[in-house]
Amino acid sequence: MSTVYITREDSGLYKKGERLIVKQGKKKVGDIPLVKVDQVVVFGDASISGALISLLLKANVPISYLSYYGKYKGRLVPEYSKNSLLRIEQFKACNDDAFCLKFAKRIVEGKLTNMRTLVMRDTRGDRSKEVDRVLDKMKYMIEKVDSGDCIDVVRGYEGIGSRYYFSIFNSVLSDEFEFKKRTRRPPKDPINCLLSFGYTLLLNDVLAALYLVGFDPYIGCFHSNQYGKPSLALDLMEEFRPVIVDSVIKTMVNKGMIGQDGFENKYGTVNMKDKVRNLFLEQYEQRLRTEFTHPIFKYKVNWRRCLELQARLLSKVMMGEIEEYPPLVVR
């Protein structure tokens, strides 16, 4: 199973029996069996026929809409999960300060631990004193997380730990690209452009996992609940940011797959060109299909399946079947 991305604005997606037909203008450029599709992502003004929308929703395949440059716009989802009992427990848990604090600590520990582990991997055998100092600071911050007595304190530890991580992110990238700090709205350089785009894709996949399990993704614990903000999806994706998106970026940069000429600066905002965007989508999907041994279940899974498994573990916590949420931590 995989995601179908429609990126060209002159493209259309149509139904033919139980197959998805991709056309550019009147030319057929793709023919995909429905059974091989788990979601469809449409960029910009690319079109999708009404008949195909009906078929996809009937087959429980969600459709997501992103802007041309990857900003999330919305999604069409199949009939809502019938697991209303889970959502009742979710609403209770997300209104319980003690539960929210406990869950927040676990996801922040997971995120910062994964960040630190990846830096240690990437600098093994060639680690500067500055990187060593930052790794020590990150370790200290991870150890501090459990002492946080409220959500705001834990958010502070997460913010400081993330700043430490990004302060040395440039040291694990090739010399062609320079990364100084994280900038979001708008991204000021190619690496920030890739990070923002990748995190949008990851958020979309976490949303799909939460809907599948039966959650309301707009009611969370760690991220503040605001109108239109998918707080629970943002909560769950934290531990996956470094191991999925950041890993894809390092692979593309350090293997010379992309260069500065793949980006353009318009009015202070850096955007990627079509070739880079399409290559990123390929590498992102390849990463999601990569298998590893799950540290809790001890069997082979890929990263896409892991998103669902972590959502199911969270559901077990909220239903009282296990005591606390175990974040996905890599070694």
From TrEMBL:
Named cofactor requirement(s): Mg(2+); Mn(2+)
Transmembrane regions listed in the UniProt entry: 191-213
First-tier enzyme category under EC: hydrolase
Assigned EC number: 3.1.-.-
One of the protein's GO biological processes: defense response to virus
InterPro entries per the UniProt record, alphabetical: Cas1, CRISPR-assoc_Cas1, CRISPR-assoc_Cas1_C, CRISPR-assoc_Cas1_cyanobact, CRISPR-assoc_Cas1_N
UniProt GO molecular function: DNA binding; DNA endonuclease activity; hydrolase activity; metal ion binding
HAMAP family, per database record: Cas1
Annotated function: CRISPR (clustered regularly interspaced short palindromic repeat), is an adaptive immune system that provides protection against mobile genetic elements (viruses, transposable elements and conjugative plasmids). CRISPR clusters contain spacers, sequences complementary to antecedent mobile elements, and target invading nucleic acids. CRISPR clusters are transcribed and processed into CRISPR RNA (crRNA). Acts as a dsDNA endonuclease. Involved in the integration of spacer DNA into the CRISPR cassette.
NCBIfam families per the UniProt record, alphabetical: cas1, cas1_CYANO
Family: Belongs to the CRISPR-associated endonuclease Cas1 family.
Name the UniProt record assigns to this protein: CRISPR-associated endonuclease Cas1
